[in-house]
Amino acid sequence: MKYIYSVLAMLAGAGTVMGQQAEKKIDSSYANSYYVGRMEIFRTLPVQKGAIVFLGNSITERAQWGELLPGKAIVNRGIGGDNSFGVLARLDTILLTKPAKLFIDIGINDLGRGLPVVVIANNYERILQRVKTLSPKTKVFAQSVLPLNEAVLKAEYLKNKKALIIELNERIRSLATQYGATYVDLHNAVFADEHGDLKQPLTVDGIHLAPKAYVLWVDYLKSKKYL
Protein backbone atom coordinates (compact mmCIF):
# COMPACT_ATOMS: atom_id res chain seq x y z
CA MET A 1 0.00 0.00 0.00
CA LYS A 2 1.45 3.34 -0.96
CA TYR A 3 0.14 6.86 -0.63
CA ILE A 4 1.87 10.04 -1.69
CA TYR A 5 0.88 12.97 0.43
CA SER A 6 1.46 16.62 -0.36
CA VAL A 7 2.26 18.52 2.83
CA LEU A 8 3.41 21.94 3.89
CA ALA A 9 6.71 21.87 5.79
CA MET A 10 6.80 24.96 7.99
CA LEU A 11 10.02 26.41 9.28
CA ALA A 12 9.80 27.34 12.95
CA GLY A 13 12.23 29.24 15.14
CA ALA A 14 12.17 30.00 18.89
CA GLY A 15 8.58 28.88 19.13
CA THR A 16 7.43 31.16 16.32
CA VAL A 17 6.27 29.66 13.06
CA MET A 18 7.90 31.52 10.20
CA GLY A 19 5.96 32.52 7.13
CA GLN A 20 8.14 30.52 4.76
CA GLN A 21 6.57 27.30 3.57
CA ALA A 22 7.79 24.71 1.11
CA GLU A 23 5.64 22.06 -0.51
CA LYS A 24 7.14 18.60 -0.44
CA LYS A 25 5.81 15.23 -1.56
CA ILE A 26 5.86 12.69 1.22
CA ASP A 27 6.09 8.94 0.70
CA SER A 28 3.91 7.49 3.44
CA SER A 29 4.11 3.83 2.35
CA TYR A 30 4.49 1.21 5.05
CA ALA A 31 2.59 -2.01 4.22
CA ASN A 32 5.30 -4.06 2.52
CA SER A 33 5.22 -7.86 2.59
CA TYR A 34 7.10 -8.09 5.88
CA TYR A 35 4.73 -5.64 7.57
CA VAL A 36 1.71 -7.58 6.27
CA GLY A 37 3.22 -10.86 7.46
CA ARG A 38 3.87 -9.54 10.95
CA MET A 39 0.34 -8.21 11.15
CA GLU A 40 -0.98 -11.65 10.21
CA ILE A 41 1.05 -13.17 13.04
CA PHE A 42 -0.26 -10.60 15.52
CA ARG A 43 -3.85 -11.44 14.57
CA THR A 44 -3.32 -15.11 15.43
CA LEU A 45 -1.91 -14.45 18.91
CA PRO A 46 -4.04 -14.46 22.06
CA VAL A 47 -5.24 -11.02 23.12
CA GLN A 48 -3.52 -9.81 26.27
CA LYS A 49 -5.44 -7.06 28.00
CA GLY A 50 -3.62 -4.62 30.23
CA ALA A 51 -0.16 -5.72 29.12
CA ILE A 52 3.08 -3.78 28.72
CA VAL A 53 3.46 -3.14 24.98
CA PHE A 54 6.69 -2.33 23.18
CA LEU A 55 5.87 -0.67 19.86
CA GLY A 56 8.31 0.19 17.10
CA ASN A 57 10.51 -1.05 14.28
CA SER A 58 13.21 -3.74 14.04
CA ILE A 59 15.09 -2.35 17.03
CA THR A 60 12.04 -3.14 19.14
CA GLU A 61 11.21 -6.37 17.33
CA ARG A 62 14.64 -7.94 17.92
CA ALA A 63 14.43 -7.68 21.71
CA GLN A 64 13.40 -10.65 23.85
CA TRP A 65 11.32 -8.40 26.08
CA GLY A 66 9.41 -11.23 27.73
CA GLU A 67 12.60 -13.01 28.82
CA LEU A 68 14.19 -9.76 29.91
CA LEU A 69 11.12 -9.01 32.03
CA PRO A 70 10.01 -12.36 33.45
CA GLY A 71 6.77 -12.44 35.36
CA LYS A 72 5.28 -9.48 33.49
CA ALA A 73 2.65 -9.50 30.76
CA ILE A 74 4.72 -8.33 27.78
CA VAL A 75 3.67 -7.80 24.16
CA ASN A 76 6.24 -7.12 21.43
CA ARG A 77 4.74 -5.13 18.58
CA GLY A 78 7.92 -4.31 16.69
CA ILE A 79 7.97 -4.61 12.91
CA GLY A 80 11.25 -4.42 11.03
CA GLY A 81 11.34 -1.46 8.66
CA ASP A 82 8.27 0.19 10.17
CA ASN A 83 7.82 3.95 10.28
CA SER A 84 5.47 6.42 11.92
CA PHE A 85 2.81 5.92 9.23
CA GLY A 86 2.83 2.18 9.85
CA VAL A 87 2.52 2.65 13.61
CA LEU A 88 -0.44 4.96 13.10
CA ALA A 89 -2.13 2.42 10.84
CA ARG A 90 -1.97 -0.39 13.43
CA LEU A 91 -2.28 1.63 16.61
CA ASP A 92 -6.03 1.25 17.14
CA THR A 93 -5.79 -2.55 17.26
CA ILE A 94 -3.18 -2.26 20.00
CA LEU A 95 -5.16 0.30 21.97
CA LEU A 96 -8.28 -1.89 21.96
CA THR A 97 -6.39 -4.14 24.41
CA LYS A 98 -6.03 -1.19 26.82
CA PRO A 99 -2.30 -1.59 27.55
CA ALA A 100 -1.15 -0.72 31.03
CA LYS A 101 2.02 0.80 29.54
CA LEU A 102 3.05 1.61 25.99
CA PHE A 103 6.74 2.06 25.13
CA ILE A 104 7.10 3.71 21.72
CA ASP A 105 10.33 3.87 19.73
CA ILE A 106 9.85 5.00 16.13
CA GLY A 107 11.32 7.48 13.68
CA ILE A 108 14.68 6.30 12.36
CA ASN A 109 13.20 4.68 9.24
CA ASP A 110 11.26 7.88 8.53
CA LEU A 111 14.53 9.81 8.62
CA GLY A 112 16.14 7.14 6.46
CA ARG A 113 13.66 7.73 3.66
CA GLY A 114 14.22 11.47 3.87
CA LEU A 115 11.00 12.56 5.55
CA PRO A 116 11.16 16.03 7.12
CA VAL A 117 11.29 16.09 10.91
CA VAL A 118 8.12 18.19 10.99
CA VAL A 119 6.19 15.39 9.22
CA ILE A 120 7.50 12.70 11.58
CA ALA A 121 6.68 14.87 14.60
CA ASN A 122 3.18 15.45 13.26
CA ASN A 123 2.65 11.69 13.03
CA TYR A 124 4.04 11.28 16.54
CA GLU A 125 1.56 13.84 17.81
CA ARG A 126 -1.27 11.94 16.11
CA ILE A 127 -0.08 8.77 17.86
CA LEU A 128 -0.18 10.47 21.26
CA GLN A 129 -3.57 12.00 20.53
CA ARG A 130 -4.94 8.60 19.54
CA VAL A 131 -3.73 6.99 22.75
CA LYS A 132 -5.31 9.76 24.78
CA THR A 133 -8.62 9.25 22.98
CA LEU A 134 -8.85 5.45 22.85
CA SER A 135 -6.94 4.38 25.96
CA PRO A 136 -6.51 7.37 28.28
CA LYS A 137 -5.40 5.23 31.24
CA THR A 138 -2.43 3.80 29.32
CA LYS A 139 0.88 5.17 30.57
CA VAL A 140 2.86 6.25 27.52
CA PHE A 141 6.65 6.25 27.36
CA ALA A 142 7.96 8.19 24.36
CA GLN A 143 11.44 6.79 23.88
CA SER A 144 14.06 8.77 22.02
CA VAL A 145 15.33 7.70 18.63
CA LEU A 146 18.66 5.97 19.19
CA PRO A 147 21.96 7.27 17.80
CA LEU A 148 23.77 5.66 14.87
CA ASN A 149 27.40 4.65 14.49
CA GLU A 150 28.54 5.64 11.02
CA ALA A 151 31.96 4.01 11.43
CA VAL A 152 30.32 0.61 10.99
CA LEU A 153 27.08 1.64 9.29
CA LYS A 154 26.74 0.24 5.79
CA ALA A 155 23.30 1.63 4.95
CA GLU A 156 24.07 4.81 3.00
CA TYR A 157 20.50 6.09 3.32
CA LEU A 158 20.95 6.35 7.09
CA LYS A 159 24.17 8.33 7.03
CA ASN A 160 24.45 12.01 7.99
CA LYS A 161 21.34 11.84 10.19
CA LYS A 162 22.90 12.80 13.54
CA ALA A 163 21.58 16.36 13.63
CA LEU A 164 18.14 15.25 12.44
CA ILE A 165 17.95 12.59 15.17
CA ILE A 166 18.72 15.23 17.78
CA GLU A 167 16.09 17.57 16.31
CA LEU A 168 13.47 14.82 16.20
CA ASN A 169 14.19 13.81 19.78
CA GLU A 170 13.69 17.38 20.95
CA ARG A 171 10.30 17.42 19.24
CA ILE A 172 9.39 14.08 20.80
CA ARG A 173 10.41 15.43 24.21
CA SER A 174 8.19 18.48 23.72
CA LEU A 175 5.24 16.40 22.54
CA ALA A 176 5.60 14.05 25.49
CA THR A 177 5.35 17.01 27.86
CA GLN A 178 2.37 18.39 25.96
CA TYR A 179 0.41 15.13 26.08
CA GLY A 180 1.36 13.93 29.55
CA ALA A 181 3.65 11.14 28.36
CA THR A 182 7.04 10.28 29.85
CA TYR A 183 10.01 11.08 27.64
CA VAL A 184 12.72 8.41 27.88
CA ASP A 185 16.11 9.73 26.81
CA LEU A 186 17.73 6.47 25.77
CA HIS A 187 19.87 8.38 23.27
CA ASN A 188 21.97 10.23 25.81
CA ALA A 189 21.50 8.18 28.96
CA VAL A 190 22.27 4.73 27.55
CA PHE A 191 23.46 4.50 23.97
CA ALA A 192 25.43 7.58 22.87
CA ASP A 193 29.17 7.93 23.39
CA GLU A 194 30.97 11.22 24.06
CA HIS A 195 30.64 12.12 20.35
CA GLY A 196 26.92 11.44 20.21
CA ASP A 197 27.38 8.20 18.26
CA LEU A 198 25.96 4.78 19.08
CA LYS A 199 28.55 3.05 21.28
CA GLN A 200 30.33 0.55 19.05
CA PRO A 201 30.26 -2.36 21.54
CA LEU A 202 26.46 -2.03 21.67
CA THR A 203 25.77 -2.37 17.96
CA VAL A 204 26.14 -5.09 15.34
CA ASP A 205 25.91 -2.88 12.25
CA GLY A 206 25.74 0.76 13.28
CA ILE A 207 21.98 0.81 13.83
CA HIS A 208 20.77 -2.50 15.30
CA LEU A 209 21.67 -3.44 18.83
CA ALA A 210 23.83 -6.20 20.23
CA PRO A 211 22.04 -8.47 22.74
CA LYS A 212 23.78 -6.89 25.74
CA ALA A 213 22.41 -3.49 24.71
CA TYR A 214 18.88 -4.68 25.46
CA VAL A 215 19.95 -5.65 28.97
CA LEU A 216 21.20 -2.08 29.49
CA TRP A 217 17.96 -0.73 27.99
CA VAL A 218 15.80 -2.70 30.41
CA ASP A 219 18.09 -1.93 33.35
CA TYR A 220 17.72 1.78 32.60
CA LEU A 221 13.92 1.54 32.42
CA LYS A 222 13.94 -0.28 35.75
CA SER A 223 16.27 2.26 37.33
CA LYS A 224 13.86 5.05 36.39
CA LYS A 225 10.92 3.03 37.83
CA TYR A 226 9.26 2.86 34.40
CA LEU A 227 8.99 -0.93 34.70
TrEMBL record:
Domain SGNH hydrolase-type esterase: start-end pairs: 54-214
PANTHER family assigned: SGNH HYDROLASE-TYPE ESTERASE DOMAIN-CONTAINING PROTEIN (PTHR30383:SF5), THIOESTERASE 1/PROTEASE 1/LYSOPHOSPHOLIPASE L1 (PTHR30383)
Protein name as catalogued: GDSL-type esterase/lipase family protein
Lineage of the organism: Bacteria, Pseudomonadati, Bacteroidota, Chitinophagia, Chitinophagales
